[in-house]
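Continuing the batch. This is chain 6 of the set; chains 1 through 5 are on the previous pages. Same settings as before, nothing changed between runs. Recording input and output for traceability.
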Amino acid sequence: MTLPGSLRDMPPAELFPEVYARDPHHRGFARGGRAAALEALARLDPVTYGRDRSYLDGHVSRLSPYIRHGVLTLAEVRDAALARVPATAPSRAWKFVNELSWHDYFTRVYAQVGELVWQNFQPYQTGWPQSAYSYDFPEDIAQGTSGLACIDAWSRELRETGYLHNHSRMWLASYVVHHRRVWWQGGASWFLTHLLDGDPANNNLNWQWVASTWRAYPYLWNRGNLQKYAGQRYCAECPLASGGCPFDATYAALSERLFRGKKAAPGGEGHLDPARLQAVPWEPPPAPEAVPDAVVWVHGDRLSPTHEALTAYPDRPAVFVWDDDLLRQWQVSAKRQTFIHECVSELPVHVLRGDVAGQVAAFARAHGSRTIATTPSPSPRFTAIVAALESEGFTVQVWPEPVFGASLTPLDLRVHATYWGQVSASAFGKPPAPPKPRRAQAKASG
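Output for chain 6:
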């Protein structure tokens, strides 16, 4: 069987001309690939990060695209952070490591819930029914023509660079969902199109947190909060600064204006049974045993030369497949295509495009192999591809990545704080600690 020639060296603008014609911003804020990732990692200052990360001009790592696409693992980023603080004072990197844990946490939740990540875990805690939220994403937000200087600036930055500071993401999401009463899934899809680090785990679960479909109450911000962390950069040029600013109010006044009370409307529907997240095994799959004739499948969640299956089979053929259906579904921007292309171009892979399961199977057959080695992914799409390959008689080996945090017991993923209590000792290089006993609540005196 003869394979099509590799697309590895074809410029992405030629691979996806319709995308590059639609999106005028062909390069985002970060260059793709392991070399660029290591340069960014070398600039990491976890101590300064812990002090001023909440400010728009504060020190942030901008490592998220490399983590999202597995160019860097959470474990190696954590190790780099701990190496930059005294061994006797690892707590100086506490905030940075804790923030990394959110990525691990959301990824684990996504692995458990799958496509449910696109549905409300619980009803909106805003007093408004689901029917009150529009399914049409506002064009003025998408194009940055709302007339609000801050909103329009964030829309422009997202579309032009593929990046937003975490505070800006929350502020923008809150405006979309609560001020404009637009369903959070529309905003999450918009972010996935443009963010270089966009993935359904971290992206969607943060939108659910803001929306209150996975939180006890909705997330709000006001002008004072904006000016505290962003200064006057937006208000100074906003035509509504002297009157008409929708954010110039107390939180109590904003809540009264935007909500019908911070609880679910009657008949509200949620789709997640919390018990599904209550006792989740933390252990990765055991490392498989290498076989002589395996081929390697590299996917978009682990685009690194340190890829565990590539390392296990350094002399065997490897393939990466552009997933045309997924790219269309997510309407992936030219910026993201460029970033992924730059990551792939550093790898020893034959590049194809189309139906992933079909192309990987054809690649394996062309090399006389019945074993396909790869790395894990929380995506239900990955699960479906593996199932399709196995139904064709292939053995799919999943080579585990380094563990970020181990636990002595199955993980409780219902809330991050509980999960963090289980893995935090291990995340700092110590033996896993037993869960802390709950304190008994004192009875009220009668």
